[in-house]
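Entry 0007
Protein: Flagellar biosynthetic protein FlhB
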Amino acid sequence: MAETDQERTEDPTERRKQQAREKGQVARSKEMGTAFVLVSAAIAFMWFGDWLYEGARNVFQTMFTIDRQQAFDTTKIYEAFGIAFGFIMWPVLIIFAFVLVATFFGNSWLGGISFSTKAMAPKFSRMNPLNGFKRMFGIQALVELVKAIAKFSVVAVSAYFLLKWQFVDILQMSMGQMPNMIGNALDILLWMFLLLCCSIFLIVVIDAPFQLWKHNKDLRMTKQEVKDEHKDTEGSPEVKGRIRRLQMEMANRRMMQEVPKADVVVTNPTHYAVALKYEDGGSQAPVLLAKGTDETAAKIREIALEYDIPLVQSPALARSVYHTTELEKEIPQGLFVAVAQILAYVYQLRLFKQGQAKRPKKPDSESPIPEDLRY
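Output (structure tokens):
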């Protein structure tokens, strides 16, 4: 059982993934980055190649038309270099920026953008020769060897078929005339380069899911680690239980402080007790100030007696109010008639104590309560 608990069989939690990302541990595919760099370079040369060609032609034209007198004049030489640099600068910068954006996108597509100072910190374990030998002859090294052989095989086979496809056109270039022959050769070369680079995506299709699987596998957790993390994030059951008890005690204390404000306490008579208040002349329905069962109900009755609040026995009404009404909320409309009878009795009892009315008759303990509100 202990061995089973130590096996990393559980999928990583979100917190484990976030901690790994903070350490710079994210899924990466070097093959994807390489493929994006090569393909973007091929596309950049196809789009901006004419501009680069014109710039290079102007550079050669400028540099090869310098006469002997200008060649020995440093001022003229610097001017010529400045003009040549102006011809070639913008196409080179555009191509470089295009490839740079594609490189960033290709390397961040899998795993997203991650910047971690922890990953930049030196690790002395990497300087251990034994760990180096393990990396050289481990499973990861074997996987990289297989990938290298696969890349070589895919590129070699793709190059063979591309050469076979363009073999006739390549032979016909020998019968062409300058400078058209150079343009045709460049077109064939660029298309072959682009298709050859795209062939690397065959490796990416396999490598990217593998890297995701390996990253998830490396982050797997034992059952005990999952339990410990749950305790750290959610708290131990003992602490949570204690917090709940303290919260209930505080809520009960606040609730008991509201009992003296009640107009009447309806009881079961012993198991349930609810304290109700109604603002005379107000538009609101009676409000539940306190409720409880057993010990809490006894405490409510004790406070009611202390503050001379009438206690009225109505088991069905007490249970219905307890189960259907939240604290400081109005009672349901279906209980209005039953509660109105209780309040009318309380008001008449108050007048009787003041000597202004006869002793009222106690309301029927079986109050008129709808079936859907009975408990």
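Curator remark: The radius of gyration is 43 Å. The chain has two domains: 12-114+127-229, 255-352.
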